[in-house]
Amino acid sequence: MKRLLLSFIVLATTFTLAVAQEDSAVVTKTFGYLSYDAVLKAMPSYAEAQKSYGDLKASYAKELERSETEFSKQFAEYVDGQKSFPENILLKRQKELQQLMEQSLKFKQEAQQLLEKAEAELMQPVHQRLKEALYKVGMQKGYDYIINTDNNSHPFVNTNKGEDITAEVISVVSK
Q1: Is the pTM of this model over 0.90?
Q2: Domain ranges, residue 125
Q3: Would residue 129 count as lying in a domain?
Q4: What is the CATH number for 130?
Q5: What percent of the chain has pLDDT over 90?
Q6: What CA–CA distance (Å, rounded) separates 16 from 129?
């Protein structure tokens, strides 16, 4: 009888330890992961920034087109009159065409630089809002870090240890 009781106690203890180990094996999520681009593009402020950038880019494109049309017109006039113009007029027109071409190239370079600067300025508050949302979600969930899975930078994420928070962050930035 004592052996039976002792066997029962050993069996009960073993079972209790097994259950305790199983409970301690419950994995807590230590990090979050998301598609930064998906969240960014879901933000209302992103659409507004892209529209403003598109409008500005269209303005520069229109001015570049006007400049190229003017150059083409003057070049055509130069070619048409090339045989009938005296040499000093030809040289003057060549110089004018050269100046127009240089001005056009300079404007094109300046426009590109201004567009890059404008895009950075328009997107800065959008990125800041997303950064704040990531911090908020990360702190609420107690994450050690949040991974951006875009561009196949993390081809494998253990979903037992991490959690996809894309939808949750979209919800936060959409408020």
Answers
A1: no
A2: 24-173
A3: yes
A4: 3.30.910.20
A5: 66
A6: 49
